[in-house]
Amino acid sequence: MGSSSKPVREGSGRLESSVGYELKKVQHDLRLNMDGVLRELSVTTPQYAALSVLAEEPGLSNATLARRSFVTPQTMNQILVRLEASGLVERHAHPEHGRVLQAYLTEEGERLRRKCVERVDVIEALMVSGLSNEERSDLLGLLRRCSAALRREGSG
Q1: How many CA atoms lie less than 13 Å away from 144 in the CB half-sphere?
Q2: Around Cβ 102, how many Cβ atoms within 10 Å?
Q3: What gap in Å lies between CA 117 and CA 127, rounded to an integer?
Q4: Domain extents for the chain?
Q5: pTM check: above 0.85
Q6: CATH annotation of 18-154
Q7: Which whole number is the average pLDDT over 30-45?
Q8: Is-contact 32 45, C-beta < 8 A?
Q9: In terms of C-beta distances under 8 Å and separation of at least 24 residues, what long-range contacts does 94-102 make, across chains too?
Q10: Confidence bin at 3 (pLDDT 50/70/90)
Q11: What is the pLDDT, as a whole number, of residue 13?
């Protein structure tokens, strides 16, 4: 064939030793599984993220909620419009900054969030089912350290 490129041998690639690639694979598999169980409740994974963040931090602005949910402010605005139209979220003007809208879960939103959590917890338990409690704790700590290192480096 006359090609000067070498054939790729199994086990010779950089991806097999890439922590980032493995993290992305896990994230992808987790997202697919979450999408599946949440779809049964007519909830998207980004909507679930927003509901979860609002349950822990009621009254967040669109921009802050977007950052905490890992989406753009524009995407979060679309999510909030849909959640508000469905009666799952209410938004009120900030008392001091009238143009800023603060989002809150409604009772119906909290009920739906709890149903979502039950399903997502099953997926997460499956994901870590091959790990001991100590390994789960270690993994969580290591992931937090990795994230902190990137945030420190990225802010400098």
Answers
A1: 6
A2: 19
A3: 15
A4: 18-154
A5: no
A6: 1.10.10.10
A7: 97
A8: no
A9: 94/61, 100/61, 101/61, 101/62, 102/58, 102/59, 102/60, 102/61
A10: very low
A11: 67
Q: Do 104 and 91 contact (CB within 8 A), yes or no?
A: yes
Q: How far is CA 144 from CA 8, 64, 138, 141, in A?
A: 34, 20, 10, 5
Mean pLDDT over residues 10-16, rounded? 68
Task: Kindly report, residue by residue over 38-65, the tens digit of the pLDDT.
Answer: 999 999 999 999 999 999 999 999 999 9
Query: Residue 106 and residue 95: Cα distance in Å, rounded?
Result: 19
pLDDT, tens only, 103-154: 999 999 999 999 999 999 999 999 999 999 999 999 999 999 999 999 987 6
Locus of tokens 């090609």? 3
Say if residues 89 and 131 touch (Cβ distance below 8 Å).
Answer: no
Instruction: Please say whether the beta carbons of 106 and 112 come within 8 A.
Output: no
* Helix, strand, or coil (residue 104): strand
CB 34 within 8 A of CB 49: no
Residue 31, token pair as written in the block = 């997202």
Rounded-to-integer distance, Cα 73 and Cα 28, Å: 22
Reduced to 3 states (helix: H, G, I; strand: E, B; else coil), residue 49 is: helix
Average pLDDT of the residues in 19-32: 96
